[in-house]
Amino acid sequence: MAPVQENTQWPRVSKFTLSACAATVAELVTFPLDLTKTRLQIQGEGVSRQHAGSLHTQTPHRGMLRTAVGIVREEGPLKLWQGATPAIYRHIVYSGGRMLAYEQLRESAFGRSKDGSFPFWKAVIASMISGALGQFIASPTDLVKVQMQMEGKRRLEGKPPRVHGVYHAFTKIIAEGGIRGLWAGWVPNVQRAALVNLGDLMTYDTVKHFLLRNTSIQDNSICHGLSSICSGLVAATMGTPADVVKTRVMNQPRDLNGRGLLYKSSTDCLVKSVKKEGWKSLYKGFLPTWFRMAPWSLTFWLTFEQMRRAMGISSF
């Protein structure tokens, strides 16, 4: 199918805006699963496997469904969207940036092959670079999102709230750690984004064009849906371990200089998590991550492709 002629006068601005809009829709639809995933990943933190049994009554271990139901019963249904505002801010920067960067790398920096395909190795490099770049810029909003998602749990445990809103969260982080404090945990954050983007963008782009070249499927919603399902699964599998480390590093308490009190680095967090809870701890929250990424990816790509078509921009 021939690509649609791009009629917009500002293609880069339009592509960035459409990416941000599609990501906002996907984020609002699937955010409760992201909150559930975050709660699961923090569950058991700092508790050794040997002593976990003695603390069971204080910090009960729940599965995905029980965690979600518990949030609704103990905190209220609207709390399933706690932290959605900074999450949307993050995706405006992150998704808009990563999508635009990937297309620029694919079309200009790396270039397609003579037959119009984008080689696999180029897709791997382009997707990781674009994901890492977009996430580094958006890291402060991700830090605020994670902290706000944990406020409901802190209140239930009788702990004082750390933040009272997005603006307060930003000002508190800057007051405690300076501007550098906004990038606390950026290393695991960027590592995760590179892996997730590798699974998402590379898989979607590769599967979509494979289907178009080797099957009778046209460039339509069926093709976009099948490609997005594959990309969601691969992204969840590759990104969950880094996501667990990222969440724990970003959620830990900090001293007056902004240094973490539980983990010195992402590597330290990785080692301590495995020692205390085993290798399975790295895949805590995998099911909600996958269950979130699958509908997120499906919603995002269907919305994104239809928006591009409506705006007269060629298919991704």
Number of contiguous helices? 10
Radius of gyration: 20 Å
Number of strands: 0
Fraction of residues in helix: 55-70%
Structural class: mainly alpha
Residue ranges: pLDDT <50 for 5 or more in a row?
1-5, 48-59
Tell me what portion of residues adopts beta-strand conformation: under 5%
Mean pLDDT: 82
For the sheet with most strands, the description reads: none
SSE ordering = HHHHHHHHHH
Shape: globular
What is the distance, rounded to the nearest whole angstrom, between the alpha carbons of the first and last residues?
A: 13 Å
What does the secondary structure layout of this molecule look like, with pairings?
Blueprint: H1 11-42, H2 64-75, H3 84-109, H4 120-149, H5 151-156, H6 166-177, H7 186-214, H8 221-251, H9 266-277, H10 286-310
Helix pairs in contact: 1-2, 1-3, 1-10, 3-4, 4-7, 7-8, 8-9, 8-10
List its salient traits.
single chain, 316 residues, mainly alpha, 10 helices, 68% helix, globular
Molecular structure report:
This protein has 316 residues and is mainly alpha-helical. The protein is 68% helix and 0% strand. The protein contains ten helices and no strands. It has helices at residues 11-42, 64-75, 84-109, 120-149, 151-156, 166-177, 186-214, 221-251, 266-277, 286-310. The longest helix is centred in the N-terminal third of the chain and has 32 residues, at 11-42. It is globular.
